[in-house]
Amino acid sequence: MTTVRYRLGDTGPAISEIRTKLTLLGLLDDTAPGPHTFDEDVDRAVRQFQQERGLTVTGVVDATTYRVLDEARWRLGDRLLSYVVANPQTGDDVLALQRRLSELGFDVGQVDGVFGPRTDEAVRELQRNTGLTPDGTCGPSTFKALGRLAPIVTGGRPDTLRASEALRRAGKRLPGKVVVIDPGHGGADRGNTGHGLEEAAIVEDLGARIEGRLTATGVQTYLTRGPGSEVELDEIGRAEFANETGANLMVSLHVDAHPNPSASGVSTYYYGGDRPGTMSAIGEQFAGLIQREIVARTDLLNCHSHAKTWDLLRHTKMATVRVELGYVTNENDAARLADPDFRDVIAEAIVVAVQRVYLPTGEDAPTGVLHLDDLAQV
Ligand SMILES: [Zn+2]
């Protein structure tokens, strides 16, 4: 497998293809077929694209940026859309379809630009409601029906209301809930390193600590990888694994690194981007809870919660949060991360955040005071 990685100074046919895509999106002005070079203008356009799409702003066209750039060319109506189980369709047209269906009151789940089973069900529902054959395939007549209907919801976020309602209905008891723990690195991929520590070893150990605590509260817990894993899955593979478990929540564990040794702190990420409708409300809430609990229980610097469209966040159907637990390249953070007691504190903070997701507002104890013993009684 070749690794897609184009950056400033690169040349070749792939670069002219990238230039064409950026020009079609209005981010670059290639009037005449210019040199096939990844120049300063391309670098700027790629950064702008990454910013707009909630990707990490690097100026480098890696596999994810390349794929999202390719998906961006589709406008609603350009092609037939349907649920292809083996290889779901992705693109801006799927995202537009989901947003439109959601405005019309149909339940598409997360507006993520991935045509999955819930989008399929919503399309069939629309077709039944408008006298069309409910075959789940979006063609000209379905597009026409979509354009004709007036939104029943304006301003509000029906998907958010629906997600909150589902959460309330799930009840506040932990037994029966399903949570996936994703150690972000493992196997040959050791992740970030610094001060004699390896990210993979830290997140594997932490994953086991969280698993033990969640299992003790009756939560069914899955790990996306472990010492016995034979195949290393990429982010989309791990997202699909999580989707198959039918989990309610997912936590992806990481440790950050930076060339500047003074960079430090904890941050959390959830699915969302600049484009309207693309935001996991429960993901945002869960990220905020994890952030708060960790900041309250440790002296890690608060680097806050942020919306991103990274593969794992985007392709998971449940509320997923990625946690970057300090910097392995920072002396203080590394000393904390090396300490087993500190890892226990982090594990406890995450388990308490899981519980808090299900506690109706107003019923939760102040941040940092809820402990595992309390959870058993809830
Ligand atoms: Zn990582």
Automatic annotation (TrEMBL):
<dbReference type="InterPro" id="IPR002508">
    <property type="entry name" value="MurNAc-LAA_cat"/>
</dbReference>
<dbReference type="InterPro" id="IPR050695">
    <property type="entry name" value="N-acetylmuramoyl_amidase_3"/>
</dbReference>
<keyword id="KW-0378">Hydrolase</keyword>
<dbReference type="GO" id="GO:0030288">
    <property type="term" value="C:outer membrane-bounded periplasmic space"/>
</dbReference>
<dbReference type="InterPro" id="IPR002477">
    <property type="entry name" value="Peptidoglycan-bd-like"/>
</dbReference>
<dbReference type="Pfam" id="PF01471">
    <property type="entry name" value="PG_binding_1"/>
</dbReference>
<feature type="domain" description="MurNAc-LAA">
    <location>
        <begin position="239"/>
        <end position="355"/>
    </location>
</feature>
<dbReference type="GO" id="GO:0009253">
    <property type="term" value="P:peptidoglycan catabolic process"/>
</dbReference>
<dbReference type="Pfam" id="PF01520">
    <property type="entry name" value="Amidase_3"/>
</dbReference>
<dbReference type="InterPro" id="IPR036365">
    <property type="entry name" value="PGBD-like_sf"/>
</dbReference>
<protein>
    <submittedName>
        <fullName>N-acetylmuramoyl-L-alanine amidase</fullName>
    </submittedName>
</protein>
<dbReference type="GO" id="GO:0008745">
    <property type="term" value="F:N-acetylmuramoyl-L-alanine amidase activity"/>
</dbReference>
<dbReference type="InterPro" id="IPR036366">
    <property type="entry name" value="PGBDSf"/>
</dbReference>
